[in-house]
Each structure stands twice: as C-alpha cells, then as structure tokens.
Amino acid sequence: MKRSIKTILLLLPALFTLTVGTAQTTKNKKVMKVQQLTKAEFLSKVDDFEAGKSEWKFKGERPAIVDFYATWCGPCKALAPVLEELAEEYAGRVDFYKVDSDREQELSAVFGIRSIPSLLFCPMEGEPQMMRGAAPKAELRKAIEQILLKAVAK
C-alpha cells in the first residue's frame, strides 16, 4: 500500500505537467486563415478555367493569393506561417488559399507551376500575376498593396 502511494505521489508532477502542457497547446493553437483548395473549390472560388472561355474571370468576392505548395518543400514550410500572419493582417480584404501541387497536379499544370512555392495574385480586375519562390514578408506585403489592393482603393 505504501509503495502504491509513493508511486502515485511520484507520478503526480509528471501528470500535472502533461495536462497543463496539453491545455496550453490546445489553448494557443491558431485557427488557420489560409484555406486549402481542391480543383473543384478552385473552379468555384477563383476561376473556372474549364468553362471553355479564353480569358481570365476572377470569381472571388475579394482579391486573393493562391499558394501552390508541396508538403515536402522546405521553402513552402517556411512561407506557410508568413502567409498565415498576412491572412490575419489582411482579413476581410484579401483571401488566402493554398493548393497542394502533388494532389492537384492538373490544376498546377494549368498554371504552369514548375517550381514551388509559387504564389498566384488574383486582383478583382485584370490579369493574375505569378510570384515564384518564398519572398520575405515585407516583399509580399508590398505585392499585396500594389497588385491586389491598388485596384480596390480606386
């Protein structure tokens, strides 16, 4: 009996640490602001390139950035939290999407994705623009302001 009590007393701090650590991790988890898109979702939210039309017609309610990435890509992993921060910063003004290039190969082929990460900037009016590679946050912010929000501010 004494041995059982000693064992319990020795394990209590470890159990307490695990419980508190788990609660903090759950409590501090951020809700993702960048939405994963499948091809079907891309067709309905960004551009229906299968409709047989030859010109780009953006379907979104707000300008958008589409991140073409892969789960194994180091620069893509480094860029992901930056895009999450920008999505939070520009919430309600710019939509942020991501497309897994390995899973959505047809979609990646349509946009000529040959290197990742590649970011497709979709303004409300005009043609989309592609940025290849992981850019610093300041450069991405500048591109958002010049490409996406310049037309909105008119």
Description:
The protein has helices spanning 2-28, 39-45, 74-89, 105-110, 137-152; strands spanning 35-36, 64-69, 95-100, 118-122, 129-132. It has a 5-stranded mixed beta sheet with strand order 1-3-2-4-5. The protein is 47% helix and 15% strand. Helix 3 links the parallel strand 2 and strand 3. The longest helix is centred in the N-terminal third of the chain and has 27 residues, at 2-28. The chain starts with a helix and ends with a helix. The chain is α/β, with parallel strands linked by helices. The chain has 5 helices and 5 strands, in the order H-E-H-E-H-E-H-E-E-H.
Question: Which descriptors would you attach to this protein?
Answer:
single chain; 154 residues; 47% helix; alpha/beta; five-stranded mixed β-sheet
Write the layout of secondary structure elements.
Elements: H1 2-28, E1 35-36, H2 39-45, E2 64-69, H3 74-89, E3 95-100, H4 105-110, E4 118-122, E5 129-132, H5 137-152
Parallel strand pairs: 1-3, 2-3
Antiparallel strand pairs: 2-4, 4-5
Secondary structure class reads alpha/beta
- Give, in order, the helices and strands: HEHEHEHEEH
Helix content: 40-55%
Q: Tell me what portion of residues adopts beta-strand conformation.
A: 5-15%
Main sheet: which strands, in order across? 1-3-2-4-5
Number of strands: 5
Described by strand count, sense and barrel closure, the largest sheet is: 5 strands, mixed
What is the end-to-end distance? 78 Å
Query: What is the global morphology?
Result: globular
Task: Figure out the total of helices.
Answer: 5
**Radius of gyration over all CA atoms, rounded:** 22 Å
Low-confidence stretches: 4-30
